[in-house]
Design a protein that fits this description.
0% strand; 219 residues
Length: 219
């Protein structure tokens, strides 16, 4: 079944993004959730072997993300659900930590991204008078930056791709919502988002990187 799931996920994702109309809204939300439900099923049937705990943590993250999907119209509620999802993701990725100096220093560009996005969002929220959102938005930016770094430190290529795509998706969403309009934002947000979640699900079955006993590090 897992061999067919990627194609089905792709099909349903394209159906939602390009075919399903915006109204009625309830129908749109229903079809928005279908690719994520399929991704959760795909993640559940990944060959986790001795990483069942890792699989369970990421499954919990996926579940909270689907809650965020269907509640994002209520921005704080949706943001909170996604925040919890990211906390599960970074917990899972950090549990797979394999030390590498080269991966460690990626905290610098990741941190620069968080400072830049945080600063731009704070400025936009100040100008718009939405000061009450400053705290939640900053916490979220910090969490997704740490999630991205934790994926890099896991050394899992699928996790890294998923985390970076998720950061791209949320950056486009935040920029479009609070700073300035992004052309084709709906398509960009959802294509990167579904691709991110698929990669995170796929990382469960990806071979883990072991830490060589001779050097104590994996590069």
């Amino acid at each position: 079944m897992n061999k067919m799931m990627p194609a089905l996920i792709l099909l349903m994702g394209l159906l939602y993004i390009f075919i399903i109309p915006a109204e009625p809204h309830a129908v749109k939300l229903f079809f928005k959730a279908i690719p994520m439900i399929l991704i959760i099923v795909y993640a559940y049937f990944q060959p986790a072997k001795n990483r069942k705990r890792f699989q369970q943590i990421l499954l919990a993250g996926l579940v909270f993300c689907i809650i965020g999907d269907v509640t994002l119209d209520h921005f704080i509620l949706g943001l909170s659900a996604f925040l919890i999802g990211h906390l599960f993701y970074l917990s899972g990725f950090f549990s797979q930590w394999t030390f590498s100096v080269w991966r460690l220093v990626t905290i610098v560009p990741i941190g620069a991204y968080a400072v830049y996005m945080g600063g731009e969002l704070l400025d936009a929220l100040t100008k718009s008078g939405d000061g009450s959102l400053k705290g939640p938005v900053l916490v979220y930016v910090t969490a997704i930056a740490l999630m991205g770094w934790s994926a890099i430190m896991s050394g899992n290529s699928w996790a890294i791709a998923g985390a970076l795509l998720f950061m791209a998706s949320d950056s486009i969403l935040a920029w479009n919502k609070f700073i300035s309009e992004v052309a084709g934002s709906d398509i960009l947000i959802m294509t990167t988002y579904y691709a991110a979640q698929f990669c995170i699900a796929a990382c469960i079955g990806a071979p883990s990187r072991s830490v060589p006993k001779e050097t104590g590090a994996a590069v």
